[in-house]
Structure formats: C-alpha cells, structure tokens
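Throughout our pipeline, every protein is held as a single compact record rather than as scattered files. Such a record has a labelled line for the sequence and another for the backbone structure tokens. The remainder of this section carries one protein's record, kept here as part of the documentation:
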Amino acid sequence: MRRFTLILSVLVLFFACDKIDDPFPPNTDVIDTGIVWDDSVYSVENDGERFVLLEEYTGHLCQACPGGAREISRLVSKYGEKFIPVSIHTIDVFAAPQPGAGGTPGAFSSDYRTTAGDEYSKAFTIDALPGGVISRLPVGSTPYKLIIGEWEDEAVKILGSPAVANLGIRNYFNAELNTYQVRIDVEWLEDYTGDMNLQVQLLEDSIVDWQKDGSDYIENYMHRHMFREALDGTWGETIPAASSGEISEFVFTREFDPTGIGYKLEHMIILAFIYKQSPVYEVMQVNEAHLIGH
C-alpha cells in the first residue's frame, strides 16, 4: 500500500475570553522533533460505513433551540458514535451578547459566534433557528436547512451506507510542553479523483452558561458540541487524488496557552470530515475524538 503525507502548517493557538471571530489565532511554528506524548486518544473505526454529521445552528437567546439540543441528545443515544453533532452559534439577534437579558446583570454576555460559523450559516441558507443540516445535503425546495422533526428522517438515509473512505483521528498530548498533535488518516475505499476537502474543527463540550428556553432564562444551561474554530480554514484543504487502498495523512502539531480563560482541555473535541467541493458540499465521511483523555 502506497502512502503519501501532507503536513499542514503548524501553529500556536491560544484562547481569548472575549473572542468574537478567532479564538485560536496562529502564531509561531511548533517543532515536534523528540516530543514524547504522554496521552493519546483514538476515534472509533468507521469500518466502511458512512457516519452522519449534523450541523445544528443555534443561539443562546433562541427560545426554541433547547428543543433541538434535546433532540440531538436523543439521536446520539439512539445511533451512538455514528451520529456526530456540532452546534454553531449564529444569527446576531439570537447569538450576539445581550448583557442583562432576562433581567439578570451580566447574563448573556458571552459571545460564541465565529466568522466561520457565520459563513456556514449563509452558505447553507440558515435564516431561522434552530436549523439543522444533515451531512450538507440539500433537501427539497429549501436547500440544506431542516426543522427538528426532519433530522432523523434524513440521517437514516445515510447511516450505515457504504463509505468512500474511512477517516481515523489520533490525538496526542504533552502536558509539560502544552502541546498536542492531531493525526488524521483518510483510507480510500475506492478510487478518488481529487474533488474533496478535508475540514478539521475544534469543538468544546459541556460549557455551562445562560440560555433562553421558552420563556425561561436558564443560568446553568449545558451547551454541548459547540463549534469553536476551523483549524484548517473555513472550508478546509483540498485532498490530492488517490487510488483505492491509499491513505492520505494529515498532521497538525500545536501548542496552547495554559493561561487561556474559558475552555477546558478535557472538554475539547477534534471533529474531521471530508466533503465534496463547492457547489455540492456533501459530507462523505466524518469522525471525532476528544483532544485528551477524559
């Protein structure tokens, strides 16, 4: 089996607590020679089956959005690791900070919007929340966007169907050096012509903050699967053509700022997927793995 390796640029990442559009800006290169990794996390195997990505568009002042979160929890419980959600905060009226909303000083002061998330919501015609996109497939006369009750029906059309590739994620961590490495293998199960991108995203789970739920304002609401940053750019990088049986390998080695405020490493998730290039966008395979052991 022939292998080729594409090493993406290595970056330093840090988190700014009041970030609006780039919580992990690039800085200097990380040299990984000689690093001994003291922790590792692996994704589950696709085993030739196609997993499903749900991109849920949401906001902390969207009163109907907790219903979407509850449906996601049900679907994850039902379909397990084959159903992978990401929650993207967007649309200013629902996602922008509104300090003091609900009558409590300081409530709803957080800003979970991102530049990339706003670009996705425009590309997939998200004009109301909650909105869901299943593996970036257009549906009917309204491209992409689905209401809550349609998510499962569209997902089951894909779940378990034959995949064009298996996608594996291996995350390595060194606490002393505040450094982690992400290795992604795309194992092609059929000949591939070079018309797809790899997208790698950083998510954060279990963020406790304010959320409107119906007419109630919930102070200690648990935000799950939150999109934080696209690690390889908003639309990812093109994967060169390959033959069946070949493996495309991508490696990221990055540092983080341990003094950063607002995220916990044990709650960070690496999400990766391959999708057809514009104007199709269809996600052909997806997987995820926690950044460090938890």
Remarks:
- Helices lie at 65-79, 92-95, 115-123, 151-155.
- Residues 1-28 have pLDDT under 50 and may be disordered.
- The longest helix spans residues 65-79.
- The CA atoms of residues 45 and 168 lie 7 Å apart.
